[in-house]
Amino acid sequence: MIPPISIDGTEITGVTIDGTDVDEITVDGTPVFSAAPPPSVFVASNGDGIYSLDVTDGTELWSFSSGFDFNSGIAFDEDAVYAGSDDANIYALDINDGSEIWSFTTGNDVIGSMAVSDTALYAGSTDDKVYAIDIIDGSEIWSFTTGGEVTSGIAFDDNAVYAGSTDDKVYAIDITDGSELWSFNTGGNANGGIAVDNNAVYVGTSGDMLALDINNGSQIWSFSAGGPINFGIALDDTAVYAGSSDDKVYAIDITDGSEIWSFTTGGDVRSGIAVDDTAVYAGSAFGSTDAVYALDINNGSEIWSYTSDGGVLSGIAVDDSAVYYGSAFGSIDAVYALDINNGSEIWSFTTGDSIFGGIGVISPQ
Question: pTM to 2 decimals?
Answer without folding.
Answer: 0.89
